[in-house]
Amino acid sequence: MLQTAEDIRLLNEKINHAAGFVTRINDELSKVIVGQQTMLERLMIGLLSNGHILLEGVPGLAKTLAIKSLAQSIHADFSRIQFTPDLLPADVVGTMIYNQSKNEFFVRKGPIFSNFILADEINRAPAKVQSALLEAMQERQVTIGDTSYKLQEPFLVLATQNPIEQEGTYPLPEAQVDRFMLKVVVTYPTKAEEQMIIRQNTLGLVAPTINPVASTAEILTAKELVRQVYIDEKVENYILDIVFATRFPENYNLSKLKPLIGFGGSPRASINLALAAKAYAFLNKRGYVIPEDIRSVCKDVLRHRIGLTYEAEAENVNVLDVIDEILRTVNVP
To answer: Is 5-200+213-217's fold the same as 231-329's?
Structure first.
């Protein structure tokens, strides 16, 4: 929808007013999280654009702490589900329990009925459990017995997985990983950051308390504003060019990528790239998307949506190499 300069100016004012809670949340998170700014920013993007996030990284990089702290900084319900090989779907969504004294069944809801779900080490649970969670993510409802129950808003699944262990894990199939808006690879802190972490954890100080500084009403208002952020048609075409270049690289002077890509991004890639760019613009207090917003979130949206061939593995080409080449070649509006 075409918007005038005045429309965008008014939207900028609304966003400036509504985005105040972002600073408050970041201030709370900085009490316990040292560094990891990219990870925290991506968590906020998922929260604002209704997208679930998969965090991948070796143990000890504050993935669980960051998710738990984000939930604590908002007046919302939080559930942590530790995924294990013996977990059952009913342990996640709930089940029907028989009450012998009343001679009837009643519903016992599972931990999925919260605003924030931390699915810790999601790749440790078998496919049935993963499917139960991912159905709730997609449909935002759960069926127990003959009744469907809507999940409350905001509803955000933040899953973690450990990439270094293969034994006793059930890797998520590509079709299921595609349900996650962003896949964020969490990296090691810098030397200076790790020095601060050592001091925080060895001085015997009382751990700081995370206070709830934002309401669910503020989050829902912000989500509505994110949807209203303006994307020009030229910027929309830039998103389409990037995604189509993952499917038909030969049409974008990228013939050398053709034998390296097994499959490209689905339409979810285009949708989520646009939504993530809108949320990124909101975090920067802008009512319109610029190409740099798309480039900033592109890797996290696409890294789990592009399948590489054996030839790519043989040539030591990874997904980020492919995305970098596409971003270098596709014309920027």
So the answer is: no
d(CA 333, CA 329): 12
Residue count of the chain: 333
Which tokens belong to 306?
A: 């592009």
Could you name the CATH architecture of 231-329?
A: Orthogonal Bundle (1.10)
Name the one residue in this structure whose structure tokens are 């912000």: 222
Radius of gyration for the alpha carbons in the chain, expressed in angstroms and rounded? 21
Encoded tokens for 191:
């030397």
Domain chopping of the chain, boundaries: 5-200+213-217, 231-329
Whole-angstrom CA distances from 229 to 2, 222, 247, 279 are 12, 11, 28, 8
| pLDDT < 50 regions, the chain | none
3-state helix, strand, coil in the chain (%, to 5): 50, 15, 35
61-114 confidence digits (pLDDT tens): 777 788 888 888 888 888 888 888 888 888 888 888 877 787 777 788 888 888
Following DSSP, what letter does each residue of 24-54 receive, concatenated? HHHHHHTTT--S-HHHHHHHHHHHHTT--EE
Task: Tell me the CATH class for 5-200+213-217.
Answer: alpha beta
Would you tell me how many other CB atoms lie within 10 Å of the CB of residue 58? 13
Closest CA to 35 of 50, 57, 15, 19: 57
DSSP labels, 199-267: HHHHS-PPPPPPPP-EEHHHHHHHHHHHHH-B--HHHHHHHHHHHHHHH-GGGGT-GGGTTTEEE---H
